[in-house]
Amino acid sequence: MEVLDILIIGAGPIGLNCAIEAQKNNLSYLIIEKGTIVNSLYHYPLYMRFFSTAEKLEIDEIPFISTAPKPGRQEALEYYQGIARQKNMNINLYERVLKVHKNQDFFEIETTKRKYSAKNVIIATGFYDIPNFMHIPGEDLPKVKHYYKEPYPYARQKVVVIGSSNSAVDAALETYRKGAEVTMIIRHSEISRSVKYWVKPDIENRIAEGSITAHFNAEILEIKDQSVIFKDQHNQVQEIENDFVLAMTGYLPDFDFLTNSGIELNGDCLNPTYNMESMETNVPDLYLAGVVCGGKDTHLWFIENSRVHAEMIIRNILLKNRDH
Hints:
The structure is a single chain. This protein is an alpha/beta fold. Helix content is 24%, strand content 24%. It has 8 helices and 19 strands. The protein has helices spanning 13-24, 39-42, 73-86, 166-177, 200-208, 255-260, 303-306, 308-323, and strands at 3-9, 29-32, 91-92, 97-102, 107-111, 115-123, 130-131, 144-145, 158-162, 181-185, 213-215, 219-223, 227-231, 237-241, 244-247, 251-252, 265-266, 271-272, 286-288. Strands 1, 2, 3, 4, 5, 6 and 19 form a 7-stranded mixed β-sheet that branches. Strands 8-15-9-10-11 form a 5-stranded parallel β-sheet, with helices on one face. Strands 12-13-14 form a 3-stranded antiparallel β-sheet, with no helix packed on it. Strand 4 and strand 5 form a beta hairpin. Helix 1 runs parallel beside helix 8. 38% of the residues are buried. The mean pLDDT is 95.
């Protein structure tokens, strides 16, 4: 069996960037991706726009041409998938990595399709796979959605949006404008300050005028077939009629996979152990890249500030190769 120099888990922007750096340095590599290229971006809401400008989303200094000041989902898909085609990257799609095991000389990687061997492994899996579940009765009902795609299914429906981050605010505004009766249930005292600056006044004005109902300092207690039960800011329990619940409560990395790979997780945020100069974890030759580095704090890393991880990792691998 061929022993690869690097096996990269995840074909998101940072995984692609790692592949580019491997190619530049004549290192054999393979990306394994459980879905399509930039799978997380593919599953973003159809009309989502990035907070960042196009140049901050670029990898390998390849120009990202956008007609709008803030590029959208489709432009990003065209950009990143176009790079994968142009570079003729070695990618296996729709294949999930099940296990990463380090033996004396190299890693053995088991997937849903076969087994691989590699001297180094880079985990660049992001955090969009696992919803941050609320663990309340009724959360598993079909009407509860942890991923929001587009507003049209919710026209003329009573919609509860849980959360106040960018995804929650976008869902609330878009469904309201397509005719939904929208109620937001927010555990904090205000709309999140991280909401895109051009969107925040819009949601605050819709709430102020009563077009969208918002319950702050509130907690969802139970979801029923035709209603939702929550506790309001006065600790009063309310039950309101409801057709759909959009639970925009965030997403988490696959901590079980990280732990099973031997990576130590620390503190309440389950921050993975890694060297900030090389991105190498406590497992020798096993690296992290991108937002997966932040543990539960998924706002710590994003495309524009983790693009540097690829160069850091490949530099460290080359140094080790030279020392040997």
